[in-house]
Fold:
Amino acid sequence: MGNTARDNYPDSPTRRGFLDYLLGTSAVATLGAIVYPIFRFMSPPQVIESAESTVVAAKLSEIPINTGKIFKFGNKPGILVRTATGEFKACSAVCTHLECIVQYRPDTKQIWCACHNGQYNLDGKNIGGPPPRPLEGYKVNQRGDDIVVSKT
Amino acid sequence: MNIPLSPERLRLYSARYCSRFCTAICGVIAACLLLYSPAAAQKKSSCIECHAKLEDARLSAPAKAFDNDIHRGRGLSCNDCHGGDPNADTKEAAKDPRKGYLGKPKTQDIPAYCGKCHSDANLMKRFNPSLRVDQEREYYSSVHGQKLRSGETRAATCISCHSVHGIRAVSDPLSTVYPPNVAETCSKCHANADYMRGFPIPNDQFAKYKTSVHAKALYEKQDLSAPTCNDCHGNHGATPPGIASVANVCGTCHGRQAELFQTSPHKAAFDSKNLGECITCHSNHAIAKPSDQLIGTQQGALCINCHTNGDKGFVAAGLMRSRINELMASIDKSTEILNRAERAGMEVSRPKFEMKEATDALTHARVLIHSSSIAEVEKVVAPGIAASSRGYQAGLGALSERAFRRKGLAVSLVFILFLAMLVYLKVRQIESRQSESANSA
Amino acid sequence: MRIDDIKTWLDERLSISTLAKLASKKEVPVHRHSIWYYFGGMTLFLFTVQVVTGILLLLYYRPSSETAFESVQFIITEVKFGWLIRSIHSWSANLMIATLFIHMFSVFFLRAYYPPREMTWLSGAFLLFIVVCFGFSGYLLPWNKLAFFATKVGTEIAGVIPIIGRPALRFLRGGDDVTGATLTRFFGFHVAVLPATATVFIGIHVLMVQLHGMSVPPKLVGQPLKKMKFVPNFLLRDLIGWILAIGVLAALAALFPWELGEKADAFAPAPAGIKPEWYFLFMFQTLKYLPAKIWKLDGEVVGIMAFNIVALMLFFVPFVDRDPANLRRRFIFNVIGVLALLFMVVMTIIGYVTK
Structure:
């Protein structure tokens, strides 16, 4: 039987020691590569809420009196209106006639669809033109500077 | 009312008073019957009883059709229009002129015949207060009315459209004037080349209308707000709108486009050249879904029908078309990359939603061309292109995130395989040690 | 304080050294069928992956019909590495069921259920049922169109069983139809009831294996076999497999991310050509081939009862074929096993290939 490196040099760094060292470091590295994503996963992301049954439609400061704003609600557009008296109203922005996006008209103080002159009042009720059904209404609440819209 | 009392009128008036008297009595009887026997709501009418039994279809048809008539539903009967005595049992007694019997009216008298009730506001109030009472007057302002007055008996009268004896309410789907049925009713005469011989108008309106987007909306999508003949031509006052009024008519629904057109240089130009507003580009009956091909300076565009190379309109048309094309191209590019990212498994529902802004801008731009102003069009095209570019960037981001994940995967796989190999080597090492010690033991 | 001091302290309280000695004595026979020994551990490893990724998903998932879909969408778009955790969870579920079948069939053909290992087989049969329930309940949780209809059809099939079918359907669905109540119920099963039950049965199963050691295939009984130590040889080999499994899962998650689809809509019609997940496909396909009526009974009912009976028979296997010397019975069971395996594989392939 020949002499192995171990026999000649019992305590010196050997292939075995090297292997153990490599094994140890790559095991730690792989464990780190597994644990790192887990920790990143657990830390809350920037956008903290997932529910699309409520959404922050706008900030109080960015919506002046007697204006309207289109916002994303789920995967459909909604319209938020700040009336001349300062009240907030929100409803679906998809016209019930042929699905154009409606807008707020500060002159008539109504919700209007430019495509075929459809008219809705601020509660979303269809009051003129071709639209056959009212716009779905939403609930509006104020939370500090945020205007929060939620499904009724 | 200062209308001289001619014998004719006297007869009409007396018939009216007679029928009113009869109606009042019958109304009381009917009310009593209604209270005690719902089935016997209809008063006695010898006219219907006799005529229904006649063998000549021409004479029995009115009696049978009257079952569905809206006038019957209101408690009226033959004598309320034709006069006579519905309680009499013999033909002579029932059709006694002294009882106000008027018989079948002549074609020229039909509007007045119907008008003896329908133009009387006090009378109509009792049956339907919200019904208009000026149909007769409107009718005489129409082409039909004017032709009738000048002796043309082929002209349409009340019964041509509303039918007679089986008249239904406009809202009744079986009515000849229920919105989806109107075009067919008009085409009964207007599409009949033989009937319309001698009149200087074409006969293909209905055929053309059926190919239009309005017909598609009305018949296929059941959209009752879609226009049919009477929405543009009027119903009782039916007349094609004047050349300079077309935009007003179309503008009843297409308000934005009309508004833009009427403040554009085209209005004055079209009116002075006797070109129909709107219909010169969009046609009147065969209104097809407009395509971008209509605008611009290339072959097939409508602008070059009037504009020539170098004039302001030519330049504007070319610019509008090219900017709209740019917006469309940008939207296509962004949609394509977002779809590619989605197929590759990336979640891009938010950027896809935000692309709506760009497609809305495109719709808006296509409306704004009616202003003939490149500045107006540019006001929406620029933000539209910006929104579309944002969508494109989001798509690029999604694809690069995917590429990053793959690179990350490659790197981690290298480490994982390396580690697996090291463990294997370790096992080999342990086992060789074990066999060595086993051998040497 | 040195390592040895800590070891002694723990040993005085937990008898670690006794356990270590027992473990060091365990040996695993080495022969040409040894490869199959790894599949049990692989299934257990994948189950652990499920537990870990499942707990992580629990930090963000919301089990209500209004919010479930959006919460999963949130996980895969907003949460850091959410796409990875979610795809690994979905893929690992499928891989686990695959390794579980391989494990079960290899145990069957290698007769690892012969006495004294009957209870190991029984606990394994229960685990098969539990894991299939895990798959069925977990599939609904994203509340997408595919899952909604798969659940509808699946619970409908359960409802067809005579006598107990209707109550069973109502129990599963939390009502007469698949609604948010079903989702809440399935969530409860998936994260509480089934994990608790699985833990108990896995505990029994693994304990039995430790007690009885690795079995030897009947043909090789009596022959002198090489042995390898369980600790560290077998375990390290196990580890290689597990590390490679992690690599496979990472690759699947990155290259074939699990789809989310569209949110479920109770009023929309079923998508065309809907099929269940691959592990149910062979049964689904078989039901499609059965005639409408068999003798006086509804064809579908006969098919479902047949599958239920076969599943029940699984529990009797170690009590019917229990004598290694009974070669004829062994042969018959081999034939049954091969036929069953072929049937499942062929029907699954047909299910995929046809519309």
Helices of chain A lie at 5-8, 15-42. Strands of chain A lie at 54-59, 67-73, 76-82, 88-92, 103-105, 110-113, 118-120, 126-128, 137-143, 146-151. The mean pLDDT of chain A is 84. The interface with chain B takes residues 16, 19-20, 22-23, 26-27, 29-30, 33, 72, 75, 77, 97, 100-101, 114-117, 129-130, 132 of chain A (CB under 8 Å).
